[in-house]
Structure formats: C-alpha cells, structure tokens
Design a protein that fits this description.
Length: 153
C-alpha cells in the first residue's frame, strides 16, 4: 500500500468518526417553523421554556405552619377541657385511664407540632433555593453562544 493511499484512508476514517457534540432537543415544529432572531423559545420546537414553580413548596410550608398552630391549639384546648376532670371524677376507676390517654395525646400533638415546626423552614428553603438555582442556570444558559449554520442568532 502506498503512503498516499494510507493517508487518504486515515483522513476518510477521521471524517467519519470525528468527535462532535450533539445536544438533545425537541423535534422540529411540525408546522416547519423555526425560531427567528429575537425568539424566546431557543429550541427549534416546542415551548423551549422549562419553568420551576416554588408554589407547591411554599404551600406545603404554609400547611406545615398551619398544622403546627392547629396542633398547639388542640393541645391547649385538650388541657383546658381536662382541667376540672380530676376534681369532678374523684373515686372513678376510669380517671387513671383518662389521665393516661391525655398524656398520650399531649405527646402525640407535641410530636406533630415539633415536626411541623422543623419542616416548615426547610420547605421554604427548598422553594427559595430551587428558584435561585433556576435563575442561575437560566443566566448561564443565556450566556451560551449558539451558532445557526454560520449565522449568529
């Protein structure tokens, strides 16, 4: 095999196996439209917009806070309604069982209240952090220069 022939085979192979970067994207719009200069979609099809909503996280945080308040109110109501029971139920065999049930419910309500108190700021932080990450990613994505067949967008 001649040296020139070897060089041609290597060049042809390199062309077939050249390393190229390919980005996954939505298929082209069935209507055949393509983004124009100034387009906000930037994907060549579909809406091109991936959005995060912190609404569900904020609502969950609000629910946790509401539940914390509700369990504390319920515990307070349970304690105040039980306040006169020991004096009025002297001699009843069920007084001991009633006190056991009261203590059990107080502990359960405290546990739920404490968990909600711990969870609420964490859920708010997730909403805030994801929103900040989305903003940072969007800014970095906007900074990427994309050529369009040699034409700048």
């Amino acid at each position: 095999m001649a040296w020139d022939e070897w060089e041609q085979i290597k060049a042809a192979s390199a062309e077939r196996h050249s390393t190229q970067m390919q980005l996954n994207q939505l298929p082209a719009d069935p209507g055949g439209s393509t983004p124009t200069s100034g387009s906000t979609t930037g994907t060549g099809g579909g809406s091109g917009t991936l959005r995060h909503s912190n609404g569900p996280w904020s609502r969950a945080a609000g629910t946790a806070d509401d539940l914390r308040i509700s369990t504390q109110s319920t515990k307070n109501g349970l304690q105040s309604s039980h306040a006169g029971v020991p004096n009025g139920a002297v001699g009843l065999a069920s007084l001991s069982a009633l006190n056991t049930v009261l203590t059990s419910w107080e502990k359960r309500l405290e546990s739920v209240r404490d968990e909600c108190e711990s969870l609420e700021p964490k859920l708010r932080a997730v909403a805030r952090d994801l929103g900040e990450v989305d903003g940072a990613v969007a800014a970095r994505a906007r900074a990427v220069h994309v050529s369009d067949g040699g034409k700048d967008r």
